[in-house]
Task: structure prediction
Amino acid sequence: MPRPIIIDCDPGIDDCIALMAALASPDEIRLEAICTVAGNVRVEICTANALGLLALTGHDTVPVYEGCDRPLTEAPVFADHIHGESGLGRVRFPDHGRSARSENAVDYLIHRLRDTEKPPVTLVVIGPSTNLATALVQAPDIAGRIDEIILMGGARREGGNITASAEFNIYADPRAAQTVLQCGRPVAVIGLDATLQLRCTPARMQRLRNLGSVVTNTAADMVDHVNAIYGEVYGAEGAALHDPCTIAYLLAPRLFQAQDATIEVETVSALTRGHTAVDIHRLGGKPANAKWIDGLQSDQVFDLLLQRLARL
Ligand code: RIB
Ligand code: CA
Result:
C-alpha cells in the first residue's frame, strides 16, 4: 500500500529532483499534494516551478497549494544565488494551463489533517517550515493526525551553508522549525551532516546524462547549474542533493544512519540564528524530540534515486 505524503517545498533545483523521485515511486509513495513556501525563491515562483515540474513529468493531476510568502517573524531570505532567479538555474519547464488551487497551503493542511475520512499523512518538509508551523499554531489539534514529519534541515558537524552556524531551511524560518520540532509527532531530521555526503560528482552526472530522457536531461541541466555554483563558492566536487535524501529515506531508511536526539533551534541570536543544537548525548537532560539522520550510504542512495528518475 503506497504511503500517503504531502511535500512542502520551495522549488528550487534539489526540490525538483525530490519531487521527481517521489512521482517515480507510485508503489511506495502516493503524493497527495504539493505545498509551496517562500524559500529558495519567492513563493509565487516556487508555485510556478511546482506546476511546471508536474507538467514536465506528466503528473498534472497532483494539486498544488501555494503557502506562506514570508517566515513567521523574520524578513524573507532567499537562495537565488544558488538556484538562480527562476529557481531552476537556466531550465524552463514546458508551458501548461494549470494554476494552484485557490485554497492556500495552510488551510489545505488543516482541512486535510482534520479529515478523519482520510488516513494520517506523512509530511515531507524540504523548504522553510513556515506552512506547517502556521497550521500547527492555528490548529494545534492537527498534530495528532500527522503520521510522521520528514524534514530536510539543520546541521551538527557540518555547521551551516547559509551562515557558519545554520543550514538554509532552518535559518530562513527558525521559529517555524522550532514549532515543528516541538509538535510532539515523530520527526526525522535529515541535515547537512547526511546530505553533504550525496554529491553529484562528474561520474554520477554522466550516469544521469546517459539516461537520456527529457525529464532526466532536465534534471541534469538543473544540477549542472548548481554544480557550477558549488565549484565557485564551495570548491566542492558536485552539488549536494539535499532534498532528494528525504525521498530516498522514505524508500530505503536502511541506507541511512539515524539516532535519537534533542534538537532545538536558536531563534534569538543574530550571529547564530537558525543554529540547530543537536543533543545526541542527552547533555541537556531533555527527552529526545527527533530522529537525527547524520549519515547515508552514498553510492546506494544515488543508485536508488537514479533508478527512480530512469522511470520518468
Ligand atoms: O540547505 C539546503 C536546503 O535549502 C534545501 O532544501 C535547498 O532546496 C534549500 O531550500
Ligand atoms: Ca528546498
Summary: The first strand starts at residue 3 and ends at 9. The chain has one domain: 3-309. The chain has a mean pLDDT of 96. DSSP finds twelve helices and nine strands in the chain.
